[in-house]
Fold these 3 entries.
Entry 1:
Amino acid sequence: MATQLSEKLEAIYQKILQRNPGETEFHQALREVLESLGPVLVKYPEFADRKIIERIAEPERQIIFRVPWQDDRGEVHINRGFRVQFNSALGPYKGGLRFHPSVYLGIVKFLGFEQIFKNALTGLPIGGGKGGSDFDPKGKSDNEVMRFCQSFMTELWRYVGEYTDVPAGDIGVGGREIGYMFGQFKRLTSRYEAGVLTGKGLDYGGSLVRTEATGYGATFFVDEMLKVRKDSFEGKRCLVSGSGNVAIYTIEKIHQLGGTVVACSDSNGVIVDEKGLDLALVKQLKEVERRRIKDYAGYRKQARYVEGGNIWEIPCQVAMPSATQNEINGKDAALLVKNGCVAVGEGANMPTTPEGIKVFLDARIAYGPGKAANAGGVATSALEMQQNATRDSWTFEYTEKRLGEIMRNIHRVCYETSEEFGAPGNYVVGANVAGFIKVAKAMVGHGLI
Ligand code: NDP
C-alpha cells in the first residue's frame, strides 16, 4: 500500500497522471518523490506558489526520433530513439542512454526524473536527462551495433553538446557504444568536443574510475550506512543481482572491503557460488567474451546455475540490486529481511517496488535508494567533464578518492536531511528532500521559465 499524500499533493499527482497516461514507471518514480515532500511545502510555501512540483514533473524538452539501420544481411530495421531533457536548473542535462527492448517513453521519463534529484545530490553542476532506444544490442555483431549507434547519433547530435546535454551509458550502452556515438558526433560536427559524452575510452578523453564508479560508489554508500550502525562489510555474505557494469564493480568493491558475494544473475537465471564469486572469471565471460552468466558454472565445480531462479531467495546480510527496475517486490523484500538481511544498497535505478520499500523501512534495516546510492556513476561522469574541460587526466587513486568523498558527502546530506525532516535514518526521505530543495531553489532563482 502506498503512503497517503496530502490533499494538495494528491491533486497534483492525479493531474500529472492524467497528462501522462500509460507511463507507469514514471508515475511510480513521481509518487515516491511526492510522498517525501509534504513537510517541504510547509517549510517552503513559495515552492507551491510557484508550482515547482508541476514544473519539475514536466520535461523541458522531449525528443523522439526514428532510427533506421541495416543488419549484416542487409535487412532494414527501424527502432525508436528518445532523449528527455528533463531539468537544467543546475547545469547541462546529464544522464545515460539505455538500449533495451523494454525502452519506451515511460521508462526514459522515470529514469530522467530520478536523475534530476540524483545529480543534485552529487553537489556537481549537472541537470537531469535520460535517453535510449528499444534497440536490443544482445546477439548483434559489432558492425550492427556500430551502424545502429551511428544512425542514433545522426539524429541526436543536434540536441547534445558539452554545455547543453551530455549523455553517458546505462543498460546496453557501455564503452563500445559510447565510442561509436562519439566517432559519429565528431564526424558530423567536425568538432573534437570531448565533453559531449562521458564513459569514453581512456585513449580519447575517458576518465579512470568511470567504469568502476557506479558499483564502487554504491558499495561506499552501503559502507557508510553500516558505519552509522557500527558495522562493516567484513565477513558479510552478500548478493548482487545482474552481471553487467554495475554488478561487476559492486562485487569487486565488496570483496575489497571484506565481504563475500555468493550470487549474481542475468535475465535468464542465477549463479550461486558459496565460496564467493570468482570475479576474474565473471569479467572474462561478461566483459571480454560477452557471454551469458550461466557459462560460469562450466568453470567452477562448486557453482550452480538456477535457470529462472530468484536471487533474493538466497539468504544474505547485504543485498545490492544492480540489474533493473522493480526487481525486488514486497515478497522478495520480506524474505530478505526474514533471512537476516541488514542492508540494501541500490546500484540499479528503482529496483525495489513501493511495497518492497515499505518492508525495508518498516523493518528499519539500512536501505539506500538508488537516487543516492548509485549517484557515483554520474558523479564520476561529471569528473570526466571536468578533466575534459581542463584538458587534463587524473590518476586512478585521485579519482577514486574524489568518488569516495562525494559518496560520503551524499550519505551525510541524506542522513542529516532525514533527521531535519523528522525521519532519522530514512534515506528515501533524505535523498528526495535534499535533491528536491536544491533544484527547487535554483528554479525559484531563475524565475518563471
Ligand atoms: P548492463 O547492461 O551493463 O547490465 C545490466 C544487467 O542487468 C545484465 O546482467 C542484465 O542481464 C540485467 N538485466 C537488465 N535488464 C533486466 C531485466 N529486465 N530483468 C533481469 N535482468 C536484467 O547495465 P548497467 O550495469 O549499466 O545497469 C544496471 C542498472 O544500474 C540499471 O538499472 C541502470 O539504470 C543502473 N545504473 C547504471 C549506471 C551506470 O553507470 N552504468 C549508473 C547508475 C545506475 P541480461 O544480460 O540478461 O539482460
Entry 2:
Amino acid sequence: MSKRVRVRFAPSPTGPLHIGGLRTALFNYLFAKKNNGDFIVRIEDTDQKRYVEGSEKHILDSLEWSGLKIDEGPYRQSERDALYKEKIEELLSLGHAYYAFDSKEELGLHRKSHEKKGGTFIYNYHNRLKLKNSLSLEKDETKKLIESGKGYVVRFKTPKKDDVVCFDVLRGRVAFPANVLDDKVLYKSDGNPTYHFANVVDDFSMKISHVIRGEEWLPSLGLHWLLYEAFDWEKPKFIHLPLILKPVGKGKLSKRDGDRFGFPVYPIKWVSQGEGIEGYREKGYLPEATVNFLALLGWNPGSEKEIFSLNELTKLFSAKGLNSSGARFDPEKIAWFNQQHILLASREFLENSLQEELNESGIRYDISKIPKIIDLIRPRLDLMTNVLRASACFFEAPKAYDQRGLDKLKDNNSFKVLKGVSVIFQNSSEFSSANLRAAIQDYAKASFLNFGTVLGLIRMAVVGELSGAGLFDIIELIEKTEAVKRVEALADYLNR
Ligand code: GLU
C-alpha cells in the first residue's frame, strides 16, 4: 500500500497572503483531495523579527473565502519548540551539526578578506576547522563558551561531496554542487530554529508525503535533501511550482504590478496601519472564479474546457498537468472567469447579494420582482460590485442621462416621438414585453421612424444610458405608470 498523501501549505506570517501564495495553497489542496489525502496548514513563524501583525488572520481568512478547507492545523512553529530542540540535539549527537561561536564582526572580517582576493567566503568544510566552533576547539573550551552565555549558533555540517543530487517531480534530477553550499545555521543565537531546520523537521514529523511549494524554494532543496540524509529520514516527494510572471515584460509577478496595472494582488482586503487595500473579494470577484483562474495558472487540465468548480478541479487535478515553466498572469482573463462563474452562480446567492445592497442603500423594492431582475441582469454582470448599478433602472428613474449618447440620438423630432411612445404605453391593454415591442415596432413603421432610434430614446428615458438588460423586459417589470413617467420626463427634458 502506498503512503497516505499528506501535503501542507506553510506560509510565513510576514505579510498578507498574495494571490501567488493562494495558488500554492490551492495546488496543495487539490492534490490532497484528488488523492483522498490531508491538507495541512502550518504557520512558519520562527522568524519573530519579520512577524507582521494580522497576517496570519489574513492568510486563514483568505483560505476560507476561497473554499479551501483545512484538514489539520493551523499548526504554529512557535508552539513546537520542544520538538526542534530534541531534533537539534539528535543531529548534534549524530555528528551532522556543530556549535559555532564566531561573532558577526569576525565573520564580516572573513568575508571582506575573501572578497579582497576576489573570492567568496563560504563557511563549510574548506575552512570550518580554522573558524571558532566545536569542531575546531577543544571539548572543554566549547563547553565553556556554551556556558558563558555569550551566545552561539548551531550549524549544519555539510558533507564533503561533489554534487547533491535531488529529484523534483516536475524537473527530474536537480543537482547542487556541494562545495558552494555553506554550513547553514540551523539554530539561531536567540534560541530559535531557522526556517530550514524547522521546515524539514516538521515535514518529517507531520508525515508530509509531498512538498508542493513555489519555485523560489528550489535553491533550498539541496540543504533540505542533505538534512533528510543526515537524519536518515525518508524524503517526501518535492514539487516546485512554476513562477507566476508579470502581465507584461520579464520577471515574477510582484505586489507593485497590481498598482501599476490596476488589479488586486490579495484574495481579500488587507488592512495595515489603518489603510486598507482591497482584494479580489472586495472588487467583486467570486471565490469560484478566483480559484478557477489560479488553477489554470501553471496547470493544464488536458482538455479545452476552462470553467471548473472547485469540486470538479479536485476530481481532475493531477501533478502531470503542472508545467515547469512560468505562467503569465493575465488580469483580463480573471475578469472573464468571473463573468462565467456569475452565469453559473446560484440564483439564491445572486438574489441575496442584490437584496443586501438594496437594503444597505435604503432603496425600497418589491421582493417578488427580485428573481426576474436577477434573470435579466445576470448575462451582463461582470463584477458583483456592479449588481446594484446593473439593476438600478428597476428601482429608480435615471438620475441623469448619458449626455454623449443622448446628443447622438436626439433631433428636433425626439420630443414628438417620445410623446407618441407615452401614448402607446398608456393605451396598452396588456403591458407585456412582447406586446410593447410589437406596438413600438408598428408605431415606428407607421410614422416612418427608424426603429433603432426610437428604441434608443426609450432606453435613454428608462435607463439613462444606452446599455443594459433587455429594454422591454425592464419596461414590463417597472410597469405602466413608472414607464410613462420616465418617457414623459425625457420628453420634458428635451423640451426645456
Ligand atoms: N515558509 C515558507 C514560505 O513562506 C514555506 C516554504 C515551503 O513551503 O517549504 O513560503
Entry 3:
Amino acid sequence: MRHFLTLKDFTKEEILEILEIAFKIKKKLKNGKRKAYLENQTLGMIFEKSSTRTRVSFEVGMYQLGGMALFLSSNDIQLGRGEPMKDTARVLSRMLDMVMIRTFSQKELEEFAKFSLIPVINGLTDTYHPVQLLADYMTIIEHKKEKDLVVAYVGDGNNIANSWLMLSAKLGFELRVASPRGYECNPLVIDSALRLAKDSGAKIRFFHDPKEAVKNASVVTTDTWISMGQEDEKSKRVKDFKGFIVNDDIMELAKKDAIFLHCLPAYRGYEVSEEVLESKQSVIFDEAENRLHAQKGIMVFLDKKR
Ligand code: CP
Ligand code: NVA
C-alpha cells in the first residue's frame, strides 16, 4: 500500500504514471464519459485549515469516480478536541477506503500514515502541497510544448515553493526560486532536492532578486506571502516582501509566451498584480480545474497499488 505524503516518495516514472491516468480520465470526462474506478469507495477528508479548491475537487472527484467523500472539519471531530492522530487513523482505517488530510505539521501527517491501514493523501501541510503541484504540472504540459522548461517561483519559501523543489528535482526541469532574505525554503528540503537533482539533471538555483530569477523563464509562479497559520505576521511580511510582487514589469522579463500560475487564493496587490492575474498569460483557472483531474489520478493510482 502507498501513501501520497510528499513527491519525494515517488519516482519520475510514478509521477508520470499518475499524470497519465489523470489526463486519460480528464479526456473521458470532457467526452461525457465517467468510469467508476472507485465504485462505492469512501474518502475521508480531514481539514484542520480552510479550503475551497482542495475540498471541492476531492469531493467531486470521488463522486465522479463512483465513490463518496466525507468532509471532516477538525472543529467538529474529536481530533480537534485532542484525540491523537494515531487513534483517529486506526478508527478511520476500519471504516473508510482512503483519507486526505490538510493539517499543519508534516510530522502529524506522517504519524497518521504510520498507523493508517488505508492510503493517506497530503492535502497540504506547512511543508508541502504535493497534490497542487501535480495539477500545476498538468497545466504546464497543456500550455507549454517546449523541451527546455524553466520555472521561476517568486515569493515565500513555503509549502508551495518546497513542493516545486521536489517536482523539479524528480522530473529534471530547471527551477529558479527567488525569496527575500529570511524567507528561503526549508534547508532540509533544499538539501534533499539538490541531492535528487544530481540524478535527474534538474538545474535548481536560488535568488534574492526576482528580476534575476524570471529572466527568460517559460513559467512564472508565486504564492501568498501569508500562509494559513501566519496571519499574525502579516504586517512584518508585507514589509519584508516589498519588491516581490509579480507585476507586468516582472512578466516582461520572462519569455514572451510565458504562462503565469498561482495555486490560489491570490491576494491582488501583494504577491501578484490584478493585471497579471487577469492577463492572457495567466492560466490560473485551468490550473484550478486540474486539481480535480490530478487528484483523480492520485486516488486511482493509490487504489491500484494496494
Ligand atoms: N490551492 C489550494 O489548495 O486551494 P484551497 O486552499 O482553496 O484548497
Ligand atoms: N501557502 C498557502 C497555500 C494555500 C493553498 C498556505 O499554506 O496557506
